Amino acid sequence: MLFNECKNELDSIGIDLNNKSIGEITISIGKRACKRYGCCKQQNPIKSSRYVEKIGRKRYVKYALFEKHNIEISKWVMQLNTDIIKNTIMHEIIHCLPNCSNHGNEFKKYANYINYKLGYDISRLGDKKQDLIDSNIPIEKEKFNYKIECSRCGYSFYRKRLNCSFSNKYRCGKCGGRFSVYQGTFYQEQYM
Ligand SMILES: [Zn+2]
Ligand SMILES: [Zn+2]
What we know:
192 residues, 2 domains
């Protein structure tokens, strides 16, 4: 299994996931359709690793160590090329390491080390469209009959059906501007 491959590769560069400070890691495939690649849920924080982080004027209680981590890889990711799946798994594994629950300096330090030593390309955000293209997965297009565009900020979206009083009834949610409605045939890529 790919997770074990990642584990062994990490072991070969001196990152031992069986180390007691890391806690137990489980991995599963997320069933819901969503945009993100994966996530890592931390459970059972270790009380002695508690610290307080100041962001601006606010203080947040954080923990460096957890007893349990559950990595979830999104279902759509599993159809991508193996190297992209492994990148995603590696990204989430880093979140299980001490002080790595966000994408801060410690996270970056591990990501750079793994990229350099093992030839990975772990970054903060993936490019979903590019990854689908690279994996030869066709991007489906959906047909719409109306394009609605804000005449002030340019924000636009598509609809299949539209009430004729739409532009009188509604204003742009981003800037409060008026909408212009265009009728025609519009295609939008369905990879979101
Ligand atoms: Zn992340
Ligand atoms: Zn607007």
